[in-house]
Automatic annotation (TrEMBL):
Pfam families: adh_short_C2 (PF13561). Its main location: plastid. PANTHER family: ENOYL-[ACYL-CARRIER-PROTEIN] REDUCTASE, ENOYL-[ACYL-CARRIER-PROTEIN] REDUCTASE [NADH] 1, CHLOROPLASTIC ISOFORM X1. This is Enoyl-[acyl-carrier-protein] reductase [NADH], chloroplastic.
Length: 392
């Protein structure tokens, strides 16, 4: 069994790479373009005169891959000459570890880009079986276009670590996983080992992002979900966050920030989102409040979660009704537009910044306001009401 990196509708499926294989991989949500996309990025970067970022060091991971790409400075001559605005999101000098990035079209990648645009150094944790594909794609330039930041520079990744967040330490790893050929080329990929490796390589971090989810029986109604499937969903999608915080807090600088991703199914019925995934998201939100108290009191770390709306990720597509959920959101949300992954990423950058210094234990909705609706206004029952619609 392997951990997954899922997002979009925060799905994880039982299909390999698309977002699952026992434990789907991913945090995916296709970055969808819309008219305000450029403006959104521009606002984030307007005051963040980024300093020179480190190269991937060859996307350096435990596999020792090296990159021939030169360092790209994120501060352009034009941006250096302009004064910053009054409230910049400035994360220069900060280091972020984002767990759950396996390609360039999901929430985790969007969060990494927003943090990088604000000046943070980026470290990634990638599901072990997907590591080789991800690093190869990076090395061959398949993600070059999506790595471009608002100022024209390129997001640099200092290091990519193999990670399976379902396992806390080597003693937890079953023999069949240890001998699995998909894990054979990597080492030190349990949560404790990755935290130790980050400490050895970089000393400390300031930002921890959890973008992991998996439910091997997500397509089953709750009444048909097995105990094993239910507990697997809880383990990969919610306890993995507890484990990451437990092992990374010792290397997090005081005043740091931790962020996870949740979904409205934690508190509302979403038919088709089964297998215990709604329960896992509810647990994640409850844990966010408790962890905010414990991590805040003991370590001065803020803990928040973002409840994101539906996006077309590979993980979500595997469930089969993501298009329907997006159409439903367009018809019923207060803001009638498609949600973009950048909007989630920019919210994460805000939460990680000093501008959010008093926000902790919170569920932040980034879903065009859909969470506020009590009914679906596209129902024929409401045809007689004068319900305003967006002008396109």
């Amino acid at each position: 069994m392997a951990s997954t990196m899922a997002s979009g509708l925060h799905f994880a499926t039982a299909k390999p790479y698309v977002s699952s294989s026992h434990r789907a991989l991913r945090l995916g949500a296709t970055i969808l373009g819309y008219d305000s996309k450029v403006a959104s990025w521009a606002k984030l970067a307007s005051a963040c005169h980024l300093s020179c970022m480190l190269p991937f060091r060859g996307i350096s991971s435990s596999s020792g891959l090296k990159s021939a790409k030169p360092v790209t400075k994120a501060m352009s001559e034009d941006s250096q000459s302009k004064p910053s605005s009054g409230l910049p999101i400035d994360l220069r000098g900060k280091r972020a570890f984002i767990a759950g990035v396996a390609d360039d079209n999901g929430y985790g990648w969007a969060i990494a880009k927003s943090l990088a645009a604000a000046g943070a150094e980026i470290l990634l944790g990638t599901w072990v079986p997907a590591l080789n594909i991800f690093e190869t794609s990076l090395r061959r330039g398949k993600f070059d276009e999506s790595r471009v930041l608002p100022d024209g520079s390129v997001m640099e990744i200092s290091k990519v670590y193999p990670l399976d967040a379902v396992y806390d330490n080597p003693d937890n790893v079953p023999e069949d996983v240890k001998t699995n050929k998909r894990y054979a080329a990597s080492s030190k990929w349990t949560v404790q080992e990755v935290a130790d490796s980050v400490k050895q390589d970089f000393g400390s971090i300031d930002i921890l992002v959890h973008s992991l989810a998996n439910g091997p029986e997500v397509t089953k109604p709750l009444l048909e979900t097995s105990r094993r499937g239910y507990l697997a969903a809880i383990s990969a999608s919610s306890y993995s966050y507890v484990s990451l915080l437990k092992h990374f807090i010792p290397i997090m600088n005081p005043g740091g920030s931790s962020i996870s991703l949740t979904y409205i199914a934690s508190e509302r019925i979403i038919p088709g989102y089964g297998g215990g995934m709604s329960s896992a998201k509810a647990a994640l939100e409850s844990d966010t409040r408790v962890l905010a108290f414990e991590a805040g009191r003991k370590n001065k770390i803020r803990v928040n979660t973002i409840s994101a709306g539906p996006l077309r990720s590979r993980a979500a597509k595997a469930i089969g009704f993501i298009d329907m959920m997006i159409e439903y959101s367009l018809a019923n949300a207060p803001l009638q537009k498609e949600l973009s992954a950048e909007e989630v990423g920019n919210t994460a950058a805000f939460l990680a910044s000093p501008l959010a210094s008093a926000i902790t234990g919170a569920v932040i909705y980034v879903d065009n306001g859909l969470n506020a609706m009590g009914v679906g206004v596209d129902s024929p029952l409401f045809e007689g009401l004068d319900i305003p619609k967006a002008k396109h």
